[in-house]
Structure formats: C-alpha cells, structure tokens
Design goal:
single chain, mainly alpha, two-stranded antiparallel sheet, 17 helices, 2 strands, elongated
Amino acid sequence: MRARAPGVVIAVHTSAALLAVAGLGWTGRHGVAEPVVALAFGTLVALGELARRGALPGEREPAPLGAAAALAYALLAENAGEATTHGVPQVVVVVTAGALAGAVPHVARGGGPALGHVARRVITVTFAAVCFQPLHGPGGPGEGLAAGPGHVLVVLLVLVLTALCDAVLAALMVRAGTGYPFGPLLREELRSLLGIGSAVCATGAVMALGTAVAGLWALPVFCLPLLLAQLSFRRFATVRTTYRQTIASLARATEIAGYTPHGHARRVAALSEAVGRELGLSGPDLTVLEYAALMHDIGQLSLVDPVPDGATAVLPAQEQRRIALLGGAVVRQTGVPRAVAVVVERQADPYREQPLPARIVRTVNAYDDLTGDGAGSGLAALEQLRLGTAHDHQPEVVAALARVLSRGGLGPAQPG
C-alpha cells in the first residue's frame, strides 16, 4: 500500500495543539474567570465524551452533548443576568480539558477518540468563540448588538458559520486520508448538518441563552432532549447495523453453497463503495451500492452446476442476464429498497443502459473475478477491463477503479 503523508491532518492536529497551549498559557497568566461556570461547562463536555461509548457506523458526531456544551460555552454572554468575562483562550482551555478528561476512560479501555475528533472540536469551538466573544465584551464593537434584541440572530449566525467551518474541516481531513473527491465529501458533511448537526447547534444555542437568563441550572434541563435524541439515534444505528449484517449473511449463501469464492461478495462491496465515492456518490446512493454489491451473485443459487470460481464475467451475455434477473427477483423478497434489486437485475446489461451503481458493480465484480485467489495480476485485469469499454465497462468507472487501486485500495470513509 502506498504510504500517505496527509499534510492537512497534520496541520489540523498541530493547529489544535498550538491553540490549546496558547490558551493554557494565557489562562495561567491571567487566572480563571468565573471558575464555577468554567467547571460546570467543562464537566458537561467531559460527560458528553464519556457518554459516546464509541462511534457507530455512519455516526457523524459520537459525542453530541460534548459538542453542544462546548458551543454553548463559546456563545455564553451572561450567567443569570450577569455579564461573563471569560475570553477565547479560556474557552479553548475548558473545552480541551473537558474533552481530554472525558477521553481518559475510553483510552484506558483501548477505545479512545481519534486525534482528529478532538482537534476538530478545539478548532471549531475556537472559531465560534473568536466570532462571538468580542461582541459582548466591554467596549466591544458589537456590544450593543450582542446584548440587545439582535443577540439571538448573532448566536444563530455564528452557529451557521461554525457548522460550515466544521463541515469543510471534516471533508478536508477525509480527503487527505482517502483521496476521495472533496465535493461529494463536503456534500455528505453538509447533509449530516440536517440531522444530528442541527440538534447539536440548536442545543448549544438554547443552553447559552438559557444560562444567560436562569443561570447554570438551565444546563441539565436543556441537555436532556439531546441525550434522548442521542439514545434514539444509537438504537436506530444498532438496528441499521443489524440489518446490514443480515444482508451480508444472506450474501454469503453463495459462498457457503460453493458457488463463489470465500470473501468475494465482501471484497466487491468494499471496493465498489470506494469506487462509488471516487465517482461522487454519497449517502443513500452509497448504501444502495453496498447492498447491491453484497448480493450481486445471489442469482447463482439457481444454477444446477456452479460456475468455475463463481466467475460470471466469463459467461455468455445471455446467461449473465438470466442470472442477474433471477438475483433481482430474490433481492426483491428481502425487503431492501427497490433500487437495490434494479442494480442487481441490470448488472449484466450494456453499460450505457445501466444506472451508475450497476456499472460500478459490474466492473468491480469483473476485476475481482480476474484477480481473485491469484487468478491474475491487477494490471492485466485493468487492461482487460479497458479493452471492454466499448460495451461492457464504462471508461470512467474503469479509470476510477484504477485510481482507487493506485492509492492502495480502500480507505476509511469517516473523518477521524
């Protein structure tokens, strides 16, 4: 696998470390302002990290309570009607200390958060504090606006800018680690803002505004809805994970019956997802692609005699279509989205008549058939696929597959 030197990731980690050190030095020199308030928010950040229990597949924010508490402290202008005096450096120190304290038990169990998670938290909260804190400070340029009727609008504007900053940062880090195109990664991050991201921002704003009126007693009251939302999401994620495992188990039926080589469906699914990301697919489209790739060979169970090594790519076109149609009929009985069955049914059609996921599955399946179990070299397989671009394989898909393989194959899909 080709070694990567993700300069963006290193820059993010270094920037977060410098911010934390600078904030600690400033706070150590000037002292902690309103230590009770700082302790309350730092504890809430730590509790949020403790409650994350490890990120589940597809989970964009494993510690939403910690993120909301960090944002609330950055946006805090008053405490029970009294103006707060903590500044940006103290916000950085409190958030960093809370995140690290909450991570200690996870690290002790060998499941601590990735450095990218903590670094992003520090940078985005610093961004929010820099945008907001000068507005309400004594003599600040926007002191009147931040303390008057426009206060809520200022908070919302800062939250929107902070969310955009975090989405760009997350997409850049994934881009640096995987080489996937930046545009689709950014769209996926922005789409997530409509889910848990909006809940985090709304809770952070409400906590800051509530504390300004009711004091620190508002914190446990306003964090409860987010805790319930996190619990509901984790249950949903668990069900979704079980559903994916069920589909993967069904896909292994062809391996158990001896129709396809061991691990073929899993390899095709993983490589298809990487190629799909390379071509700009994201969100539900990637889920359809994954499910279709896992079950693309299910139609082989209808064969009396197994195809040697399960290599359907070498069969006559008519036989490939028959197997594909039978596979689609089976998939329709599993309860997966109809689009998955369509991909399975049309994977043997000429590529100009196929949807993009079917083109990807067909090309990746052919590549694995040509290289599986040492059947041939990757370069020779790619050359054979290029020779079939007139009818069987879309040139752009073959080129994307080549790029993925040149980077060493598969990479993580989620930001660290």
